[in-house]
């Protein structure tokens, strides 16, 4: 049964009141293959990615931790610039959709938003490796799909929080080659890292710098992989820099600035956090706990500058790691058929909107992250403004490997290749959700804030760049980043209701989207119809973007749609806590 036939039979105003399961049921062919996510998306359109003959390409991923993009950390990594920026394409509109380690990393490998994989925190019961394993998320994710296609999958460094002496076994997909995670409580200790190889005994490297140990081990792994010229590989290298050093004591978790390698301690002595307009501003109109923050003191600002320098210093060993690995790939004859990606799990703020240090918000500093790729068919020394998120990553890798892409993924491939014909008529990503359900905390302080649950819709297209957020407190904020790139002024109250109605409708779809509804949310609001004349009910197949939806003929239609709100501020995802109310209801 066709999706369009079912959806067209339901008035769009009613469709947005349907439960998540009802919407999905209206979109899916009810057979076992579809429910298992086995139906492929044809991302190739008759074209094949540029590989060495019939040999599958390799994939090497540098995955750092808490690395900012918006406060310029990449500008202090000359080797990343030389070997990746200059030799590849940087995606400037690349985002994490949940700005915290565990949810973001699971989205990266699963291709799902956090409301679908439900790893929403750093520790149990709602996050960590314990949650990941209990939900069996490794049964159906990128590493297992690559493994089934004959790839050798290898991992070294940080996976997610919760890999411990009693829970360190490899997830499926990384269980047949080399699995060497950092193990708690020494995941974030720079001069005393602890690793375990393939669920073996713990090995401590006291006195050795973590990134250097990872560098040495990575070269050995590459040399082993080079012995089998015909088997393709996925190799993930994940140092924890520039994340804080983290210790556990009787008072709980202690965060201290990252520790650089001794050879880099002298660098950047005069560098300070960029004083963007949103740095410790005089006026603060933000909702929830962010709006209650006082201005940072001079002493706090000085401490942030020192932390910024420590972060940049700690990334220098990562910079050297990148050069060493790329040179080794070249030495081993592996470079020309390898896609190399440099990214991180989430961004980071320092002094933004008076916040001290951390992540966990929907603001640009926390969500807009580095993503650079080089390899066969990738344009060199180019910046792309194509919109993408971590949920796009699995489809991107599978497409480059010329492998089937499961229909269940929440995003399609990033258009990374210079030859765009391979992507056919794929709808560019315009909108996606940013979501969070946990307590906020300021790193290096004892400050904790409960009301940090929110859902946002992010829209980026030709001539517009928007962020709209609904908080669990009932407060809302809206920014036009074309006019206000640093999100200084919340213009929600001065924006016309007719425009906000469109954003509410889009958020209402994205907050529970799955698979096709995430990839094309406008098709839920404006389902295809056999006739384009039924505009009063939103049935118009020409509406596939915000610009299309702003046609005045839809004003009444959008005014009648429900809007989304939280019942209360919970620190975990509970669908029953997130509901809709008629548009005219004041909350």
From TrEMBL:
<feature type="domain" description="Sulfatase N-terminal">
    <location>
        <begin position="57"/>
        <end position="402"/>
    </location>
</feature>
<keyword id="KW-0732">Signal</keyword>
<dbReference type="InterPro" id="IPR017850">
    <property type="entry name" value="Alkaline_phosphatase_core_sf"/>
</dbReference>
<feature type="signal peptide">
    <location>
        <begin position="1"/>
        <end position="26"/>
    </location>
</feature>
<dbReference type="GO" id="GO:0004065">
    <property type="term" value="F:arylsulfatase activity"/>
</dbReference>
<dbReference type="Pfam" id="PF00884">
    <property type="entry name" value="Sulfatase"/>
</dbReference>
<dbReference type="InterPro" id="IPR000917">
    <property type="entry name" value="Sulfatase_N"/>
</dbReference>
<dbReference type="GO" id="GO:0005539">
    <property type="term" value="F:glycosaminoglycan binding"/>
</dbReference>
<dbReference type="InterPro" id="IPR012083">
    <property type="entry name" value="Arylsulfatase"/>
</dbReference>
<keyword id="KW-0378">Hydrolase</keyword>
<protein>
    <recommendedName>
        <fullName>Arylsulfatase</fullName>
        <ecNumber>3.1.6.1</ecNumber>
    </recommendedName>
</protein>
<dbReference type="GO" id="GO:0018958">
    <property type="term" value="P:phenol-containing compound metabolic process"/>
</dbReference>
<comment type="similarity">
    <text>Belongs to the sulfatase family.</text>
</comment>
<dbReference type="GO" id="GO:0008449">
    <property type="term" value="F:N-acetylglucosamine-6-sulfatase activity"/>
</dbReference>
<feature type="modified residue" description="3-oxoalanine (Cys)">
    <location>
        <position position="101"/>
    </location>
</feature>
